């Protein structure tokens, strides 16, 4: 496993049942979440959709599809400590990126994660911190078509997860890396 910069554990959670907001407007935001700034207009869909074309399924993931796990990520409020079920496991490079949304929203810094297959025109070329690429990912409004600057990357196994907790219900949430997951 290669990590180009130290990985901070991050959180994944969302607003009520249908759609989860990534921003927080209170002082109770999880540690490290301030990097996202307040951008509550950036909401994750309740269903993240299928994995991008061309992504390789992991051949021997630590957490196979169907495994129930505990998330330690803090990408969104309510994610850290949530129970999730693995809905996909992939071998790819994941990037933490900064970008300005195409819909006029506030700049987003250190967004975790976008995978290699969600970047235009990079093929198999692994990007380094400071490199830029246009995103094809549609995890949040204003993301698709935005130019992203790579903050960090990792070659850990990358997972899609289904979350059903009092704070949120999401299927095929993209993405959580292996270091952000613990056995249930």
TrEMBL record:
Residue ranges for the region (Disordered) are: 26-58
The record's annotation in InterPro entries points to: DUF1541
Q: Where is the DUF1541 domain?
A: 65-116, 129-178
Q: Does the keyword Signal apply?
A: yes
* Keyword field contains Phosphoprotein: no
Family annotation (Pfam families): DUF1541
Bias (Low complexity) occurs at: 47-58
- Keyword vocabulary terms for this entry: Signal
State where composition is biased (Basic and acidic residues). 33-46
User: Signal peptide span per the entry?
Assistant: 1-20
Q: What is this protein called?
A: CheY-like chemotaxis protein
The record lists the organism as Corynebacterium mucifaciens
